[in-house]
UniProtKB/TrEMBL annotation:
CDD domains: AAA (cd00009), HLD_clamp_RarA (cd18139). It holds the Pfam family AAA. Gene3D superfamilies: 1.10.8.60, 1.20.272.10, DNA polymerase III clamp loader subunits, C-terminal domain, P-loop containing nucleotide triphosphate hydrolases. SMART domains: AAA. This is Recombination factor protein RarA.
């Protein structure tokens, strides 16, 4: 049962100023990083940099709580370089000057600069020569797309790496480590976490490890030990309270979370608008905006497709708006998209066509590219007969001319089988059939 304690007192531990669990559990070397194995795994780019002690400045971008600061901390710990953290939005140029002075004395400083997309030009101009010399190894962190939000002068001097949301297994690994660690974690508290509580912790924050660990610590330190066995028992209700997210879409095994996502897509595919809105509501109430957005984009192209291409474009706009405004307002553009996709005519002809083409390629059902289509821009191509008989369609009436495009081995193959569930694809089918017949006369 949760004690009626002031959260502030829990977090500062009676005035001791104890740092949050997520901070204390930050890895001190590359091997301890949870997730991001595409960057830090054996033989991957950051692992190689650390082992060779040839660090490059970099920008890490991705969702909050996915390990950007942890990677920076681990890089510094593994290389034994001095490590400093600043925030581009709140720390001043003077703070950067202090780091630069330290770099002069120690040789190299790894600087973790959070919210690097908010770096002002005076701060940027000060940093650039230090990045050029390598005295400061900059590790910038941002949740924004760096190709859009970060000045080209900084981008040109850094490597850009995407940090991905942690998987449920990654989150579980971090929780187990925190529960076992007696020095920085909660290992001295004799905590027993129920399987339902563990599942909710791994799912509800959608890859945000910082939120997960801080909620776990709040749950542990605000729950009285059992008088019988002395253990701190943390169940699903306690975790829900500390995360402020109800377990609306999970069961004991966590399978129902995926069942709801599956039902969401199948309801739209089946044109049941009310059922689709119901499952949308369950996902949004659980805070799973990421799954909703990803699934809607898939549905728009997989299930509606060429029957209503404009609906796909409007779904992209709705998802973009939802990502920018966040919950709870995100429910509005998403509801618009769900209703339109549900009511819209459906066609899976595009996914069926590409899957059929891929199946052919994987089975070896392909031949040599016709000579007329081969690249003719290099010296000697004419002698090989490459591109010599190619007919440029724009030189002919209606910008079309009959010629062979498929390899001879599969020249009669047809992948696209148009449907007639909407006026748009009806028109596509008519045009496709006319062109196919003309090509094969």
């Amino acid at each position: 049962m949760l004690l009626q304690l002031d959260i502030f007192n829990i977090l500062i531990q009676g005035g001791k100023g104890l740092k949050p669990l997520a901070y204390r559990m930050r890895p001190q070397k590359i091997e301890d990083i949870v997730g991001q194995q595409h960057l830090v795994g054996p033989g991957k780019i950051i692992d190689r940099m650390v082992k060779a002690r040839l660090l490059s400045s970099m920008i890490l971008y991705g969702p909050p709580g996915t390990g950007k600061t942890s990677i920076a901390s681990a890089i510094a710990g593994s290389t034994k370089y001095a490590f400093r953290t600043l925030n581009a939005a709140t720390d001043s140029k003077k703070d950067l000057e202090i780091v630069a002075e330290e770099a002069k004395m120690s040789g190299t400083v790894v600087l973790m600069l959070d919210e690097i997309h908010r770096l002002t030009k005076p701060k940027q101009d000060f940093l650039l020569p230090h990045l050029e010399k390598g005295s400061i190894i900059l590790i910038g962190a941002t949740t924004e797309n760096p190709y859009i939000s970060i000045n080209p002068a900084i981008r040109s001097r850094t490597q850009i790496y995407e940090v991905k949301p942690l998987t449920e297994e990654d989150i579980k690994q971090a929780i187990d480590r925190a529960l076992a660690d007696t020095e920085n974690g909660l290992g001295k508290m004799n905590i027993e976490l129920s399987s339902e509580a563990m599942t909710h912790l791994t799912q509800a924050t959608h890859g945000d490890l910082r939120s997960t660990l801080n909620a776990l610590e709040l749950a542990a330190k605000s729950t009285a030990p059992d008088t019988k066995d002395g253990k701190v028992h943390i169940d699903l209700a306690i975790v829900e309270e500390c995360l402020q997210k109800k377990a609306l879409v999970q069961d004991k095994d966590g399978d129902a979370h995926y069942d709801v996502i599956s039902a969401f897509q199948k309801s739209i595919r089946g044109s049941d608008t009310d059922a689709a809105l119901h499952y949308l509501a369950r996902l949004l109430e659980a805070g799973d905006l990421i799954s909703v957005n990803r699934r809607l984009l898939t549905i728009a192209y997989e299930d509606v497709g060429l029957a209503n291409p404009a609906a796909a474009a409007r779904t992209v706009s709705a998802v973009t708006a939802a990502e920018k405004i966040g919950l709870p307002e995100a429910r509005i553009p998403l509801a618009n998209a769900v209703i339109e996709l549900s009511i819209s005519p459906k066609s899976n002809s595009a996914i069926s066509a590409i899957d059929a083409a891929i199946a052919d390629v994987r089975q070896g059902n392909y031949g040599d590219v016709p000579d007329t289509l081969k690249d003719a821009h290099y010296k000697g191509a004419e002698k090989l007969g490459h591109g010599t008989d190619y007919k440029f369609p724009h030189d002919f009436p209606h910008d079309w001319v009959k010629q062979t495009y498929l390899p001879a081995k599969i020249k009669e193959r047809q992948y696209y089988h148009a449907k007639e569930n909407g006026r748009i694809e009806q028109a596509f089918k008519k045009q496709y059939d006319l062109l196919r017949q003309a090509q094969r006369k």
